[in-house]
Specification:
The chain has a domain of about 90 residues. By secondary structure, the chain is mainly α. The protein is built from 4 helices and 3 strands; from the N terminus they run αααβββα.
């Protein structure tokens, strides 16, 4: 029995030694994936530095022109999307954004002057002035009657012909 016990212990020790010293296979894809991520991160950092260098070399007025034109386009897009939220008005007039974007009419309730802004954008001086006029109740309804104007008239060209 002692020999069987020693044989079992010897086999267990061999199994333990085998498990400790056996070669473990590390997944190669993980290392390759990490290498690709590192290359991408380094390339991104280099790209960001390059873009910063280019931007710093541009004149300030060019940068302002680029960023303001982007802001104008984004603002116009937001105005377009805002019309989807303004369907509860009986009539909606688009004014082109100067000094307000829309005038919404709810018959029996009132008239709203609507200015669409992105984020924390501030009102322009003209928009602030209009807002103050509205808050001071200095808004009027002005009917304008125009008589018919004859637009088509005979014009002499000086060559004896009438065009």
């Amino acid at each position: 029995m002692e020999i069987a016990l020693l044989a079992v212990i010897f086999l267990l020790i061999l199994v333990i030694i085998f498990l400790i010293f056996r070669a473990r296979k590390a997944p190669a894809t993980d290392i390759d994936e990490l290498a690709n991520k590192l290359r991408f991160a380094l390339a991104s950092a280099d790209s960001v530095r390059e873009i910063q260098r280019i931007l710093e070399s541009l004149p300030r007025d060019v940068l302002k022109s680029i960023t303001s034109s982007e802001a104008v386009r984004a603002g116009k897009l937001n105005e377009l999307l805002a019309t989807l939220e303004l369907t509860h008005y009986d009539r909606l007039f688009y004014l082109g954004g100067n000094p307000v974007d829309f005038v919404g009419i709810k018959y029996g309730e009132g008239v709203d002057f609507i200015e669409v802004k992105m984020g924390k954008a501030a009102l322009s001086p003209a928009e602030k002035e209009l807002r103050d006029l509205i808050e001071c109740k200095m808004v009027n309804y002005v009917p304008l009657s125009v008589k018919r104007i004859a637009v088509a008239e005979e014009v002499e060209t000086g060559e004896g012909e009438v065009d």
